[in-house]
Description:
Elements: H1 13-28, H2 35-42, H3 46-53, H4 56-75, H5 82-99, H6 101-109, H7 119-140, H8 150-169, H9 178-192
Helix pairs in contact: 1-2, 1-6, 2-3, 3-4, 4-6, 4-7, 5-7, 5-8, 5-9, 7-8, 8-9
Amino acid sequence: xxxxxxxxxxxxxxxxxxxxxxxxxxxxxxxxxxxxxxxxxxxxxxxxxxxxxxxxxxxxxxxxxxxxxxxxxxxxxxxxxxxxxxxxxxxxxxxxxxxxxxxxxxxxxxxxxxxxxxxxxxxxxxxxxxxxxxxxxxxxxxxxxxxxxxxxxxxxxxxxxxxxxxxxxxxxxxxxxxxxxxxxxxxxxxxxxx
Length: 194
């Protein structure tokens, strides 16, 4: 039987490459992330990655975009109570990172030396941050963050959540109860700014 019979149809290449790339990132980390490894795992010729993505950086950018689109959706939960909405967004932040460590790594760990997101991809990341800024502005209307700029408060919250999650993903979380400790972090951030 020819190799052609086992190749992935062209219409499915992008999805297969994406799945293969994420599997490699989650199982091996960025060290195993090469065009050849992705092609082998996706059952495509290496040239297909160049044809469909323009090369390895195109695969990374596709994952970056997918990650930030999904992440923004996860953070965009609406609650009638703006204070609770911030806690819910913080919980969604951690849940996303734990469920999608490969995407989260592409988005926030930047383990690829020669990757620089395009201006459009960088704008998507900025829009995700703006989602949090908008939540802060909603909470300001009921007394939270009254003396802070929404952007500064959002940066502090994002940094604290990112730090907790990054340590957890590296298995450097020594809390007795990780869920309870993270909820304590979120409540402290929310209430500390009040």
